[in-house]
Amino acid sequence: MNGEVEDTLIFCEHTPIFTIGRRDSSADWISDLKDIAGEGIDVVKTNRGGRITYHGPGQLVGYFIFDINKLKLGVKEFVHKVEEACLQALAKFGIKAVRDPEHPGLWVGNDKIVALGFHISQGVSMHGFALNIDPDLSHYRHIVPCGIHGRGITSMKQILGKAPDTKAVIDALIETTPAQFGVTQLNPSKKR
After folding, report:
1. Which residue positions in the chain have pLDDT lower than 70?
2. Hey, what CATH topology would domain 8-183 get?
3. 80 backbone dihedrals φ, ψ, rounded to 5°
4. Which of 146, 159, 172, 173 is catalytic?
């Protein structure tokens, strides 16, 4: 072993937290940070791209730690492949999400269902996607999600009327992701 780590996909759910990307998000707060803290929601600055987003129970987060240089991918192509894996996984549940060339993430109508944010350092990706299965959507009232005005947030439960099991969503992503990266299977790490 030469100390290298294989490409890794980590699935998890977070306790309620707002993460702030590298872009200036000061105008994206609707609520006072003291009020947010009073609800038990943490705020953390990260090195990923993008602005403010919410993470919490009921939202599946996928962290891609991939060597995109070894995969011979540019950043845009890598992000496109992650989006495609999520699009195909949502389709397995009958949800037709789409890309919006003006706004990152995946959308169902006017509402975002998957947020994306990455950081690439020395060709290795960090961070990933947040797919709303059944999070507390009321927490989004504190922010302008991803700095995008006039658009909403949705979840699989809101669209389907019932939330699918998180394991079923993970299984769908395990099925759809490998083909995007030219591998036959994933060995994901699942943490809570």
Report:
1. 1-4, 184-192
2. BirA Bifunctional Protein; domain 2 (3.30.930)
3. -60, -40
4. 146
